[in-house]
Amino acid sequence: xxxxxxxxxxxxxxxxxxxxxxxxxxxxxxxxxxxxxxxxxxxxxxxxxxxxxxxxxxxxxxxxxxxxxxxxxxxxxxxxxxxxxxxxxxxxxxxxxxxxxxxxxxxxxxxxxxxxxxxxxxxxxxxxxxxxxxxxxxxxxxxxxxxxxxxxxxxxxxxxxxxxxxxxxxxxxxxxxxxxxxxxxxxxxxxxxxxxxxxxxxxxxxxxxxxxxxxxxxxxxxxxxxxxxxxxxxxxxxxxxxxxxxxxxxxxxxxxxxxxxxxxxxxxxxxxxxxxxxxxxxxxxxxxxxxxxxxxxxxxxxxxxxxxxxxxxxxxxxxxxxxxxxxxxxxxxxxxxxxxxxxxxxxxxxxxxxxxxxxxxxxxxxxxxxxxxxxxxxxxxxxxxxx
Length: 387
Known about the structure:
Layout: H1 10-18, E1 36-42, E2 45-51, H2 61-72, E3 79-85, E4 127-134, H3 142-155, E5 160-164, H4 172-176, E6 193-195, E7 198-202, H5 217-229, E8 236-242, H6 249-257, E9 262-267, H7 271-286, E10 291-297, E11 301-302, E12 309-310, H8 317-324, E13 329-333, H9 337-344, H10 349-352, H11 357-373
Parallel strand pairs: 2-3, 4-8, 4-9, 5-7, 5-8, 9-10, 10-13
Antiparallel strand pairs: 1-2, 6-7, 11-12
């Protein structure tokens, strides 16, 4: 390992360690050859990619492992995530082949009772059902919906986890008012943060809120895989995954690597949003993921002063689209200042105003989703109320 100099920043020490790794052709090291890209160092957590020739991709795993181990030995480094990438689409390792951030490979977990499986999709240990909350485009309130849906599922007696898989724009920490960073268990896994009865994991816990994630697709895929499999979720009835908008790498990684029990599509009522929602719905169908239904968010607005109703983004478009696509319509969520204020404050409406009609709407969606996942009766649970 290269020697380190007192007073160097952690990023400098990481780069110095990586300079000790020879390039595949032994002509220089991987740093001087420009193979190390996307380096992120935050609170002892290190992530980077190694660009290799696409033809060498399948044989470059020892290089990735050596780089990971070299960085892991640097004083001050708590965790390391290294991934291989190539400009022309090098073949990617299956998620099950990724080693732990400290070089320990994990055996495939067995399917949980009642958990759906599919060829090539490895279950997440302890998790019975995984559902994706997705949208075809940004700005439709998907993350707010995902958080309140998770809390509503918890309020009807289920053990629920929430994975913020929106790598580029993680918002769950703010929506739940969670600060700090996760600890590492004795088994070298991350312990999820906990709030309002949910177990929560997000890239936002290890990266500053204003730090841009300038990552290529393979790094995004690897990060999502580790957030799923390198976290000690314990026993969960449902893991709700808040996906980024669109139909890109993150969505395909989730759909193809784990046995999703279903997907929930969030859209606003107007045509421009529904066009993109339709794309998202069709993507899940093409990869054999059941679509549990469509939620129409910002469905209508009722003035708090005069009670007049205004359909700002039109109304009923998602319901009509659900009928046309022969998929369930899960419900309408209004455009309301209380939902916005409680979300910004980190006290989502389902827990801060449990008796409100908006909470009832989220809970009705949760009950429909659970009925589709399983015919088990609901277990009564105490509601979490913020005084």
